[in-house]
């Protein structure tokens, strides 16, 4: 199937061609025809599978068909959990709509001045991409006119709820006009009970599109667990980064303080690295991400919230410096690599107090991950064997596993 067969406007097809898109991904193939029929949609797919285009393209087509160039009103609202994802969705929306005349888009999120956002909300943009907290701030100040909204998107709905945005999201939904024919999209990597409740609140009925097993790691990722004492984790990580695959590396920590401390340690060890988290000013975060995307910065240390929305090509290595407490977070973290069919490597540094967390992850994804040690940094306590209830994770046909500096257990 090609994008031509989906029923998209020539201007959108021209933009996709200019952006190098050759054929739709499964989530796009299933979603776009339904969306063009005006259906409400709940979509679930692994990260990195093209969900943004699946909802942005139909929205652009809808707005272009009824656009009045005499002025701008907010006709589409896209809610996302983080500033980085807001910028990413805005950038993709602008790219897909580059050949459509008269339509404009803007992002609304915290950490920056209100005035430019106020102008966009009061008549400067047809499409608003917003984080719930800052949008609610504008609503309280009377800056928002929702009377012309034709499309609502709840993107990364699971993370918005996990981050405590549920009350804000519900207030925004309740403020939308009920007498208009509104098309609603809800996209999420996982569909939990809370996400399902949100879908029922936002729409009366919907079509469901589910690509792949829920909460499954992306294909093409090679997983591995490295048992190591907590005191030796930094040294083990530095050793791994010295023999990492060519490309960018993304390291995850649980805390902001841990991200800063780890980035400083790596820099002292000769590994240029920077940290990114919510305490940094937006300008700093944007600059760091731009350097990471350009390749000027090859190693980025991030917290889960800050990394949400990072869509960077050629991330070949993801390292869980701290094992996540929630198995779904593992899926989200590792989804930063092996995007769009590429290969990737996901390694988890496991100290003895994290054995049960890794076991929960393996049970959740339905596979055991091979254990390998860093010579000279073997754990002082022998780790448990593979779980017998699930098979070992298969290695991709074209492996990029780090072979130097590791020892198979």
How would you describe this structure to a colleague?
The protein is of the alpha/beta class. It has two domains: 3-210, P-loop containing nucleotide triphosphate hydrolases (Rossmann fold, 3-Layer(aba) Sandwich), CATH 3.40.50; 221-408, P-loop containing nucleotide triphosphate hydrolases (Rossmann fold, 3-Layer(aba) Sandwich). Helices cover 38% and strands 16% of the residues. The longest helix is centred in the N-terminal third of the chain and has 15 residues, at 51-65. The model has no long low-confidence stretch (mean pLDDT 86).
Write a brief structural summary:
The chain has 409 residues and is an alpha/beta fold. Helix content is 38%, strand content 16%. It contains 15 helices and 15 strands.
């Amino acid at each position: 199937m090609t994008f031509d067969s989906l029923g998209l406007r020539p201007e959108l097809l021209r933009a996709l061609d200019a952006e190098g898109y050759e054929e739709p991904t499964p989530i796009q193939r299933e979603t776009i025809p339904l969306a063009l029929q005006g259906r409400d949609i709940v979509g679930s797919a692994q990260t990195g599978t093209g969900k943004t285009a699946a909802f942005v393209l139909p929205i652009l087509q809808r707005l272009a068909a009824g656009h009045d160039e005499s002025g701008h009103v907010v006709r589409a609202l896209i809610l996302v959990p983080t500033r980085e994802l807001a910028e990413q969705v805005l950038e993709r929306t602008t790219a897909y709509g580059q050949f459509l005349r008269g339509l404009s888009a803007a992002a609304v999120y915290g950490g920056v001045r209100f005035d430019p956002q106020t102008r966009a909300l009061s008549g400067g943009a047809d499409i608003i991409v917003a984080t719930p907290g800052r949008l609610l701030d504008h609503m309280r100040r009377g800056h928002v006119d929702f009377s012309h909204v034709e499309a609502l998107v709840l993107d990364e709905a699971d993370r918005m709820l996990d981050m405590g945005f549920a009350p804000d999201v519900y207030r925004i939904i309740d403020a939308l006009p009920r007498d208009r024919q509104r098309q609603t999209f809800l996209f999420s990597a996982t569909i939990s009970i809370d996400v399902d409740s949100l879908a029922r609140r936002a729409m009366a009925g919907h079509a469901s599109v589910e690509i792949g097993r829920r909460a499954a790691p992306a294909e093409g990722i090679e997983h591995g667990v490295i048992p190591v004492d907590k005191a030796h984790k930094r040294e083990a990580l530095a050793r791994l980064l010295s023999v990492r695959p060519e490309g960018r590396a993304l390291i995850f920590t649980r805390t902001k303080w841990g991200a800063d401390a780890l980035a400083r340690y790596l820099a002292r060890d000769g590994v240029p690295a920077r940290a990114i988290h919510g305490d940094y000013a937006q300008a700093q975060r944007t600059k760091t991400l731009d350097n990471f995307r350009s390749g000027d910065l090859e190693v980025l240390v991030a917290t889960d919230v800050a990394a949400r929305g990072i869509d960077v090509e050629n991330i070949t290595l993801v390292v869980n410096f701290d094992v996540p407490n929630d198995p779904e977070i593992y899926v989200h973290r590792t989804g930063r690599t092996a995007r769009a069919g590429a290969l990737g490597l996901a390694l988890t540094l496991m100290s003895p107090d994290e054995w049960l967390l890794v076991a929960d992850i393996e049970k959740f994804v339905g596979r055991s991950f091979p254990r390998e040690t860093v010579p000279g940094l073997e754990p002082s306590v022998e780790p448990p064997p593979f779980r017998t209830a699930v098979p070992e994770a298969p290695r991709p046909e074209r492996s990029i596993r780090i072979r130097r500096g590791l020892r198979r257990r």
